[in-house]
Amino acid sequence: MNDLPHSKAMDHFCIDRQEKLPLYEQIERNLRELILNGRLQPGETVPPEWELARIYGVSRLTVRRALDDLARQDWLFRRHGVGTFVSRPPVAVITPSQLSFSQEMSAIGRRPSSRLLSCRVIPADPTAAHRLLLAEGDPLVEITRLRLADGVPVLLETAYLSSLRFPGLQDSPTLETGSLYDCLSTQYGVVIARVDNSLKAILLDNEKARLLGAEPGSPSIFSECLAYTVEGEIVEYSFSVAHNVHSQFYFSFRRGES
Prior knowledge:
It is a single chain. This protein is α+β, with helices and mostly antiparallel strands. It has helices spanning 23-36, 49-56, 60-72, 101-107, 126-132, 174-177, 180-188, 206-212; strands at 45-46, 76-79, 83-86, 92-94, 112-123, 139-149, 152-162, 192-203, 219-229, 234-243, 247-249. It is 27% helix and 32% strand. A hairpin with a 3-residue loop joins strand 2 and strand 3 (83-86). Helix 1 packs across helix 3 and helix 2 packs across helix 3 (60-72). It is elongated, with a radius of gyration of 21 Å.
């Protein structure tokens, strides 16, 4: 993809003129999606304004407005007299297309890893039991991990799964080195098909700040997550904290999406 103007990759630069969204916003969204799905890599040159204007069938002024917005949002950066380039994405990006942390990091060119802090079987407390539709006191596997991207701590995550549904999960070496969802798929035949997240702002306490390498009291994002199978069965309840210095959250909603 180093010679974008002459490659088939140019087919991915597209907008929908039937959509009511302003053209510059459509271009902005299209370029952002190309960055998120890895078709435009960090450090890669974006085609010049005149070329993008030709491809999209719009004026250079429209293209310039889209590029300016993306540059302000740190998706792109410019070098005077050289060109416009794709920025290295923030280390934590939540998008609808990726379900797991490992998938998200790999998609934006980061190396995901985990540090297993604890893994044990505990009785379900009222909150976890309610979220997982289990009885209070049912055995749960509690997994607490520090998630890293290129060795940088970005998420402190605790997950709960039924110990009866996933016997021996707490002893899986995959929890230290790989993706929990890959483990569920390969070892238990359970595929995660949907993840629901809710977000709210919090301030880091001393322990979370220490683990994330941040200052106590720093503003951060607290996320609660429910993971479902194709059949709609809830198999995981988790919550995580992301330090906002290393995080950016991007959501794209379209009418008619399920």
